Amino acid sequence: MAKRIDAESTLKRLRNRYRLVVMNDDTYEEVVTFKLSRLSVYITLSTIFVLLVGLTVALITFTNLKYYLPGYGSQSQRKELIFYKTKIDSLEKSMLYKDQYLENLKKVLSGDVKTNVLDTATLKIPEVERSTQ
């Protein structure tokens, strides 16, 4: 029962109306008057905070400001990384072809294969596991 009374008093305090008056210090004339409640002030400040955070994130994400963040890297570094990644993939594939060729050549020279003609269409390249990062 005490919790319900406490929740009701908290809700009443949030909904109580207050008046904020801005006055001229020399003439004591009211310049602006606001009627506020704690709830409206809380909602207004929360909304402003969420909007500012959203605008800041959007500004950093969708503009070139992200390149000034530590750890993100520059655009030229990203292009270079993509270039080297494709180069490594092609070298790896070439190395697998050569390994398969040498293995078949050893079989032919040792006499394990019935024919000594290599068929390049039957070369099997094992799938290499790639880690995605």
Show the helix and strand layout.
Elements: H1 2-15, E1 17-23, E2 30-37, H2 38-62, H3 75-110
Antiparallel strand pairs: 1-2
Q: Termini separation (Å)?
A: 55 Å
Rg measurement, Å = 36 Å
Strand order of the largest sheet: 1-2
DSSP helix fraction: 55-70%
Keywords: Membrane, Transmembrane, Transmembrane helix
Transmembrane segments: 39-62
Protein name: Peptidase M23
Organism: Lacibacter luteus
Describe the structure.
With 133 residues, the chain is mainly alpha-helical. It has 2 domains: 2-68, no CATH class; 75-122. Helices cover 56% and strands 11% of the residues. The chain contains 3 helices and 2 strands. Keywords: Membrane, Transmembrane, Transmembrane helix. This is Peptidase M23.
Concise summary:
Keywords: Membrane, Transmembrane, Transmembrane helix. This is Peptidase M23. This protein has 133 residues and is mostly helical.
